[in-house]
Amino acid sequence: MSELKKNYEKDVKDALMKKFSYENKMQIPALKKIIISMGVGEALKDKNAMQDAMKELTLLSGQKPIIMKAKNSISNFKLREEQEIGLKVTLRGKRMYDFMYRFTNIVSPRIRDFRGFRKKCDGRGNYSLGLDDQQVFPEVNLDEVKRDQGMNVTFVTSAQTDSECFELLKLMGMPYER
């Protein structure tokens, strides 16, 4: 069992139970999954862009991403239906906790001019953030990076409100701005 999972079971659950005074232990929110997605618009012009992004996302997530395809054709964007436009990985279980630990303790301090993430959740108990550059991850070899590639990271929890989600992620080590 990872350190973050042990910390959740031992300390975070008790702190959440005390703060929100739940009637049942099953009401305590938990982290369900982490979704990492990349939009690879360059793939329309450069065929190698999708392979490069797939390789980097595999390195930093620990599993193979799925390819996202366009649902509709949009002529202004020169986009056709079923064209490959992005990648997505859904992390659960041990990989999820390992990624969360690396993200909060190693990656976040490496972000330039980092003062913490915004305290705004989506209203349903989930938290999303965007990164401009994949080079903050130590797994990515800087010599092999050909283009800067941003990504979205979504933390899906079982929390019912934003305050529960915020408190859960804060107790699990997510650095928020003051």
TrEMBL record:
<dbReference type="GO" id="GO:0000049">
    <property type="term" value="F:tRNA binding"/>
</dbReference>
<protein>
    <recommendedName>
        <fullName>Large ribosomal subunit protein uL5</fullName>
    </recommendedName>
</protein>
<feature type="domain" description="Large ribosomal subunit protein uL5 N-terminal">
    <location>
        <begin position="24"/>
        <end position="80"/>
    </location>
</feature>
<dbReference type="GO" id="GO:0006412">
    <property type="term" value="P:translation"/>
</dbReference>
<dbReference type="Pfam" id="PF00673">
    <property type="entry name" value="Ribosomal_L5_C"/>
</dbReference>
<dbReference type="InterPro" id="IPR022803">
    <property type="entry name" value="Ribosomal_uL5_dom_sf"/>
</dbReference>
<dbReference type="GO" id="GO:0005840">
    <property type="term" value="C:ribosome"/>
</dbReference>
<keyword id="KW-0694">RNA-binding</keyword>
<dbReference type="InterPro" id="IPR002132">
    <property type="entry name" value="Ribosomal_uL5"/>
</dbReference>
<keyword id="KW-0687">Ribonucleoprotein</keyword>
<dbReference type="GO" id="GO:0003735">
    <property type="term" value="F:structural constituent of ribosome"/>
</dbReference>
<keyword id="KW-0689">Ribosomal protein</keyword>
<comment type="subunit">
    <text>Part of the 50S ribosomal subunit; part of the 5S rRNA/L5/L18/L25 subcomplex. Contacts the 5S rRNA and the P site tRNA. Forms a bridge to the 30S subunit in the 70S ribosome.</text>
</comment>
<comment type="function">
    <text>This is 1 of the proteins that bind and probably mediate the attachment of the 5S RNA into the large ribosomal subunit, where it forms part of the central protuberance. In the 70S ribosome it contacts protein S13 of the 30S subunit (bridge B1b), connecting the 2 subunits; this bridge is implicated in subunit movement. Contacts the P site tRNA; the 5S rRNA and some of its associated proteins might help stabilize positioning of ribosome-bound tRNAs.</text>
</comment>
<dbReference type="GO" id="GO:0019843">
    <property type="term" value="F:rRNA binding"/>
</dbReference>
<dbReference type="GO" id="GO:1990904">
    <property type="term" value="C:ribonucleoprotein complex"/>
</dbReference>
<dbReference type="Pfam" id="PF00281">
    <property type="entry name" value="Ribosomal_L5"/>
</dbReference>
<keyword id="KW-0699">rRNA-binding</keyword>
<keyword id="KW-0820">tRNA-binding</keyword>
<dbReference type="InterPro" id="IPR020930">
    <property type="entry name" value="Ribosomal_uL5_bac-type"/>
</dbReference>
<comment type="similarity">
    <text>Belongs to the universal ribosomal protein uL5 family.</text>
</comment>
<feature type="domain" description="Large ribosomal subunit protein uL5 C-terminal">
    <location>
        <begin position="84"/>
        <end position="176"/>
    </location>
</feature>
<dbReference type="InterPro" id="IPR031309">
    <property type="entry name" value="Ribosomal_uL5_C"/>
</dbReference>
<dbReference type="InterPro" id="IPR031310">
    <property type="entry name" value="Ribosomal_uL5_N"/>
</dbReference>
